[in-house]
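Q: what sequence does this backbone want?
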């Protein structure tokens, strides 16, 4: 059977998965199982990568059977860092590369059962980590007019 015939038969019979769009969006899991979702651009940030071990440890205490799923769009070194962190806590980590998947997330942490959490987005749960840190030099630096008029 050619690939065209397979495609026609598959489309005619429908996809065998329940909620396939939701599964593609959350790297193969359902929305009610997600306990933490980190957007792709946030997953690459250094502050998120530094705080992630503590956050993952706290989540593993609250939800005993967790899994970590990573986007293939993350840099290789970033993927390795997150996988290493998950392995240290005995959490399974997988890089999910599904055809037709267009997920905005870089990382999905999910449970093996439905948790139905209202807030799962990292930027909503930990906005302080994503806030830009003001350095001491930036605070004390005065502009030209401030120096000129003494304000």
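A:
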């Amino acid at each position: 059977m050619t690939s065209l015939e397979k495609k026609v038969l598959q489309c005619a019979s429908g996809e065998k998965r329940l909620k396939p769009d939701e599964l593609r969006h959350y790297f193969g899991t359902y929305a009610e199982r997600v306990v933490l979702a980190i957007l792709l651009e946030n997953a690459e940030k250094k502050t998120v990568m530094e705080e992630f071990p503590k956050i993952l440890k706290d989540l593993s205490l609250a939800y005993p059977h967790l899994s970590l799923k990573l986007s293939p769009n993350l840099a290789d070194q970033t993927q390795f860092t997150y996988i290493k962190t998950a392995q240290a806590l005995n959490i399974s980590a997988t890089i999910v590369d599904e055809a037709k998947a267009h997920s905005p997330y870089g990382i999905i942490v999910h449970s093996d059962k439905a948790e139905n959490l209202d807030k799962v987005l990292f930027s909503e749960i930990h906005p302080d980590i994503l806030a830009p840190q003001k350095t001491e030099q930036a605070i004390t630096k005065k502009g030209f007019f401030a120096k000129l008029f003494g304000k």
